[in-house]
Design brief:
Blueprint (H helix, E strand, L loop, with lengths): L11 E5 L4 H12 L3 E6 L2 H11 L4 E4 L5 H15 L4 E4 L14 H26 L5 E6 L12 H23 L4 E8 L21 H14 L3 E4 L2 H9 L4 H10 L15 H8 L20
Parallel strand pairs: 1-2, 1-4, 2-3, 4-5, 5-6, 6-7
Helix pairs in contact: 1-6, 3-4, 4-5
Length: about 300
Amino acid sequence: MAKQPRILTGQVAAITGGARGIGRAMAEAFLREGMRVAIGDVDAAAALQTAEQLGRGTVAFELDVTRRASVQQFADSVEEALGPIDVFVNNAGIMPVGRFVDEDDASAHRQVDINIHGVIYGCKVALAKMLPRNRGHIVNVASQAGKFGVPGIATYVATKHAVVGLSEALRAELRNMDATIDVSVVMPNIVGTELGSGLGQSRAAKILTPEEVAEATLEALKLGRFDVWVPRSAQTISTVTGVFPRRVREGIGRALKADRVIWDADMTARKNYELRAARSEPGLEPGGQEQLPEKTAS
């Protein structure tokens, strides 16, 4: 018998990094489903503007996911404004592009602090609220880079592998605790947002829209699905190629030009995003414009 989709109307969703891109698209999709939505973002002005544009009772708060106290304040503010959080989406993340050997340590620290610690803090804060009620759903936005090694974003790949592993372990721990709290890990291909600007396209998958990722996430909430591959066909490709030896898998990746999508990035097109990402964590000084490479490939 097919699983009956859950009714999400009236549920409260909190989304980190919700001012733009995938986070904003998720907010829009959740609102259409009748959910009550709160967005948090380090860019408080952008978050407030987005909330006003979305309407339908959307609230916005300043949020620095690198500080647990800020994540706690965000969650507390959401519950004060909208009620108990049913869905907590750890979406905030950055993806600087460049060769690993050229990456400065500040960039690596920034990615780990936002992409990993931000998710860890979000999960801990959300669970502290959900476990006493024994209900809730945590959504961790990773990437297909959390399953494969992608040249040109080595540290980002490491952070997304961490998010996938964390999600898997958390799912198992909650099962051992007999907790009826769901976990989903969202793994999209390249998405046509500012984060994905200047990147190429492999022969295996088209560039996604944020709305496609949002709809897949919404479906996962309704069905309680853990693995959320976007597009879903990517999971089939991963399963099929996974039976081959590494040399064969890598050869297939090269044939599909998957190894060049990031490596051949147009850094001129990415300039605005790279500079904004470099300023995305308060307390860490961004690199100057002169430090941005002209291109990734040598």
